Amino acid sequence: MHYTIFETPVIGSFFRMVSRVCLKAMGWRVQGELPCLPKYVIIAAYHTSNWDFVIGILTAFVLKIRIYWIGKDNLFKPPFDRFFRWIGGIPINRSKSQRMVDRIIQVFHEHENLIIALAPEGTRKKAGYWKTGFYHIAAGAGVPIVLAFIDYPSKTCGIGPTLVPTGDIDSDMAVIESFYSGITGKYPDMMTPPALDPGKNSKTGS
């Protein structure tokens, strides 16, 4: 994978210190510990504001995660394309969801150590269900899913449990839903619950 700010000498350490100061100044605290695993998909919910990205990056520095994240390809245009890649961005054309899933699975197979972050809702706006690409990526790559969170009422962010996909997406989503039931986004009326698209076959949908 491409070089990022997280492994940049001196600069990475500086931003780690700044991130701690910024989160503390804003009244946020970080909870949980990362699993001692070389590869996994990390999902963070709920995504209702652009501030989620800022808090997420600050939290990644504090937790010392060398993280990559998926972004819409139209973000990666000059003069900002190199910057977004440097902070871990991977441009993806989200109109081709199955192609995206296959591509990221392949990337996991090609690397011994890799952490990719995804926003399972797929949008900041309220929708009826979560996108299941994150689940099919983890299942296809044979890696676990780490549940991360940003809870605005308590100003707490961090790492929750680790879920190993069983292949039964309905049961696994029930576990995910149970965890996020106690989490509230910045704009509660825009939160998309961890539900599956009822119009698709949950065993094969994406």
Plain-language structure description:
The chain has helices spanning 11-25, 51-62, 81-86, 97-110, 133-141, 169-180; strands at residues 29-31, 39-45, 68-72, 89-92, 114-118, 145-151, 156-163. The protein is globular and about 50 Å long. It is of the alpha/beta class and 206 residues long. The chain has a seven-stranded mixed β-sheet, sandwiched between helices. The model has no long low-confidence stretch (mean pLDDT 88). A hairpin with a 4-residue loop joins strand 6 (145-151) and strand 7. It starts with 10 loop residues before the first helix and ends in a 26-residue tail after the last helix.
List keywords for this structure.
7 strands, globular, 19% strand, 6 helices, alpha/beta, 7-stranded mixed beta sheet, 206 residues
**Shape label:** globular
Order of helices and strands: HEEHEHEHEHEEH
Task: Specify Rg, calculated over alpha carbons.
Answer: 16 Å
User: Which residue ranges are poorly predicted, with pLDDT under 50 across at least 5 consecutive positions?
Assistant: none
How can the largest sheet be summarized?
7 strands, mixed
Number of domains: 1
Chain oligomer state: single chain
Order of adjacent strands in the largest pleated sheet? 1-7-6-2-5-3-4
Percentage of residues in strands? 15-25%
User: How many helices?
Assistant: 6
Helix content: 25-40%
- Structural class label: alpha/beta
Give the total of beta strands.
7
Average pLDDT figure: 88
Give the distance, in angstroms, between the N- and C-terminal Cα atoms.
25 Å
